Amino acid sequence: MNISYNGQALTLSQPHSLLEVIEAQGAQAPYAVALNGQFVPRSGLAEQQLQEGDSIELLSPIQGG
Question: Among 63, 64, 58, 65, which Cα is nearest to 35's?
């Protein structure tokens, strides 16, 4: 299965949840997640199964002034 993670192509050998892929990529909280342009609440990350062609964007807060 081919997906996109923050603009990078990833190939998965078996089905994974959105949370599994995020954790495998070493993401550190806090972050927000968009799947195919739609925000996914943290409570739904483990339930969301990925499909061929999905696009994941991980957004981290930026501090500054």
Answer: 58
Helix ranges (H only) for 1-65 are 18-24
Cα 15–Cα 18–Cα 21 angle in degrees, nearest 5: 75
3-state secondary structure of 42: helix
Q: Is the pTM for the entire model greater than 0.85?
A: yes
CATH superfamily placement of domain 2-59: Beta-grasp domain (3.10.20.30)
Please say if the pLDDT value at position 65 is more than 80. Answer: no
Residue 5 near residue 54, CB atoms below 8 Å = no
Predicted confidence band of residue 63 (pLDDT cuts 50, 70, 90): confident
- Residue that is written with structure tokens 């995020």 in the block: 22
